[in-house]
């Protein structure tokens, strides 16, 4: 096959209904996905959403993925030195109070909360009860001291049961080390290059990118909105393509990347990320019939009648509904003939 023949294979014909084909290419294998078994290795085996739920999450443009994951690549010596990689990991890895505190004991008559330390967890995260007490005192503006048993005593200015219980819950959710919403980070090693990198179970890339030793050019998260917020809409569009392709590949489903690019472009061309649904692309169509065919049929038809809306019948759905030829494929071609040629043809017909 020569070069020209290869390029011909990728040319789209005039009038090709690319949007409809893209929808079919993703929709049809989606019906098979729930039946398949899937397997992962490493951290993704426990936190990664996959298969049909992940596809739905992406095309619905959910603000937060159910299982955010961030890939943090390193610069300098940290790429090859695990000790230096661990230093960066501890700066990023989110440690909450409920990780280093075993349980809480609330003393309502005295207005006190006793936090029972988890010594092993404290040691693993290079923290001491004094450091933890100091951090929560500063963040929550409360009095916290360490007793002789290395437990933390919090003295409140109230004896109200509800206020004490609210503060107890708030304390346990407080971040005492690392970056909030970055999640727990672990070190992984690339099998091919041997370099170390981090996988974090969160998506706060705005703060992660500020950490020294992080390779800013390769920072990546599966959270499309986080990528949009830091790198812009083009990065969000590319993330959508990558995540759709990755999810399908995990299920061993082959869909041409160009179909996924069409879907991602449709969701992001306006400069914002829009889902494919009644609150996104389908609900914002100009055609009354197209909106009515998707969801809330009566509402759209009644509103159109009440406000004298006009449907120009330029799309696929509305033309199918009324039995007209769609303006794609052969329907996108308009033929014309000169009057003189018609007269010549008529004369030739008579002569025969």
Describe the structure.
The chain is α+β, with helices and mostly antiparallel strands. It has four domains: 1-16 and 286-352, DNA polymerase, domain 1 (Orthogonal Bundle); 18-66 and 222-268, PTS-regulatory domain, PRD (Orthogonal Bundle); 70-93 and 182-220; 95-177, Gyrase A, domain 2, CATH 3.30.1360. It is 45% helix and 12% strand. It is built from 17 helices and ten strands. A four-stranded antiparallel sheet has the order 8-9-1-10. It has a four-stranded antiparallel sheet with strand order 3-4-6-5. The chain has a two-stranded antiparallel ribbon with strand order 2-7. Strand 5 (143-146) and strand 6 form a beta hairpin. Helix 11 packs antiparallel against helix 12 and helix 14 crosses helix 16 (316-322). Mean pLDDT is 85; it is low at 36-43.
Relative helix content: 40-55%
Overall average residue pLDDT: 85
Oligomer description: single chain
The second-level CATH architecture of the largest domain is Orthogonal Bundle
Question: Which outline best applies?
Answer: elongated
Poorly predicted runs of 5 or more residues? 36-43
Largest sheet: 4 strands, antiparallel
Supply the number of structural domains. Answer: 4
Judged by helices, strands and strand pairing, the structural class is alpha+beta
Looking at CATH, which topology of the largest domain would you report?
PTS-regulatory domain, PRD
Number of strands: 10
How far apart, in Å, are the first and last alpha carbons? 48 Å
């Amino acid at each position: 096959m020569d070069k020209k023949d290869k390029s011909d294979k990728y040319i789209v014909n005039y009038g090709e209904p690319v949007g409809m084909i893209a929808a079919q290419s993703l929709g049809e294998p989606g019906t098979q996905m729930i039946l398949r078994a899937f397997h992962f290795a490493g951290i993704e085996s426990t936190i990664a959403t996959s298969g049909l739920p992940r596809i739905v999450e992406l095309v619905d443009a959910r603000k937060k993925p159910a299982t955010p994951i961030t890939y943090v690549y390193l610069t300098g010596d940290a790429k090859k030195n695990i000790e230096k990689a661990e230093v960066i990991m501890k700066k990023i890895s989110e440690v909450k109070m409920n990780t280093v505190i075993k349980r809480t004991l609330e003393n309502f008559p005295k207005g006190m909360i006793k936090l029972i330390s988890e010594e092993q967890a404290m040691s693993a995260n290079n923290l001491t009860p004094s450091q933890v007490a100091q951090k929560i005192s500063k963040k929550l503006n409360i009095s916290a001291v360490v007793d002789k048993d290395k437990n933390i005593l919090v003295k409140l200015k109230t004896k109200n049961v509800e206020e004490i219980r609210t503060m107890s819950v708030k304390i346990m959710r407080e971040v005492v080390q690392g970056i909030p919403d970055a999640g727990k980070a672990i070190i992984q090693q690339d099998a091919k290059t041997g370099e170390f990198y981090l996988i974090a179970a969160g998506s706060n890339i705005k703060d992660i990118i500020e950490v020294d030793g992080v390779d800013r050019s390769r920072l990546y998260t599966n959270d499309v909105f986080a990528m949009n917020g830091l790198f812009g809409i083009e990065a969000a569009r590319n993330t959508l393509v990558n995540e759709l392709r990755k999810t399908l590949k995990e299920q061993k489903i082959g869909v041409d990347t160009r179909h996924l690019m069409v879907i991602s472009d449709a969701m992001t061309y306006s400069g914002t990320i829009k889902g494919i649904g009644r609150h996104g692309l389908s609900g914002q169509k100009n055609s009354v019939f197209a909106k009515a065919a998707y969801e809330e049929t009566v509402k759209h038809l009644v509103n159109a009648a009440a406000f004298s809306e006009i449907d120009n019948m330029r799309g696929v759905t509305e033309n199918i509904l009324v039995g007209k030829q769609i303006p794609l494929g052969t329907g996108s071609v308009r033929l014309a003939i000169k009057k003189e040629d018609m007269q010549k043809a008529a004369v030739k017909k008579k002569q025969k």
